Amino acid sequence: MNQRFPSRVIVRPPRAARSLPCFLLLLPSIGCAWLGRAEESWSDRRSTREWIDQALDAKQPDDRRRAVERLARGTDAGADVVLQAMNTIARTDSDAMVRTAAVRGLGVTPQPRSAATLVKILRSQREKIADALPADAPVRWEAARVLERWSIESTAPAESRESILTTLIEGVQTDPDRNVRLSCLSALGSYPDRRTPPVLVEALRGSDFAARDRAEQSLQRLTGQSFEHDPAAWERWLGANNRF
């Protein structure tokens, strides 16, 4: 005899109840996001002096770097007290990422004191600088990029152009980092000086095509001519045309 079982009735919870577990899973991330926004909002209330103190004195490099970045994008980025702190950090902080952020911040406001700091950073790899620590490659590259931008945009301080030019030439000839050399080559296209073309022509003889192309472009900007990366052709033209 077959036993009959009552049919099972599936009771589905209301839609809102079915969504509750997912909502509970999202609570931690929602809470973290809210706390993050609250912390950011609170941080924005700090004074410029407080940000400077954190940038100079915080024990953790990430805290110093965040303070430097906040100062660089703040309304007081060009204030003397901020630039003084940025120059100090760019020259002397023990962490390369903090120094890089400070160098980037200095690039916002071209001025002679900042140009002197960038020159010291680029030279620190090959000579001892009394008030600047030796700079790692990323720090030197950022300094070269700032000088490159200032040079191309014609915003480099006039009284700093000679020291910048000398440092760029030395960077092309002696810096061991390729990125630094490339930025220096690009920047030299903004200096119509008799010392510039020989450095660029010499770079055309190298095996690095990126460096050769940067040198060609800089020579084009200086002369309005183009010789398709041919150093011999450039030497002939420069010898026949005393442009500098």
SSE series: HHHHHHHHHHHH
General form:
elongated
In percent, how much strand structure appears in the residues? under 5%
Poorly predicted runs: none
Rounded to the nearest angstrom, the radius of gyration is 28 Å
| Alpha plus pi helix count | 12
For the record, give the distance between the C-alpha atoms at the N and C termini, rounded to a whole number.
114 Å
- Mean pLDDT equals 89
Helix content: 55-70%
The major sheet is characterized as:
none
- Structural class, judged by helices and strands? mainly alpha
Oligomer: single chain
The beta-strand count equals 0
Q: What does this protein look like?
A:
The longest helix has 29 residues, at 15-43. The chain is elongated, with a radius of gyration of 28 Å. It has 244 residues and is mostly helical. Helix 9 packs parallel to helix 11. The termini are far apart. The mean pLDDT is 89. It contains 12 helices and no strands.
Question: Secondary-structure blueprint of this entry?
Answer:
Elements: H1 15-43, H2 48-57, H3 61-72, H4 80-92, H5 96-106, H6 112-123, H7 137-152, H8 161-174, H9 178-188, H10 196-204, H11 209-223, H12 231-240
Helix pairs in contact: 2-3, 3-5, 4-5, 4-6, 5-7, 6-7, 6-8, 7-9, 8-9, 9-11, 10-11, 10-12
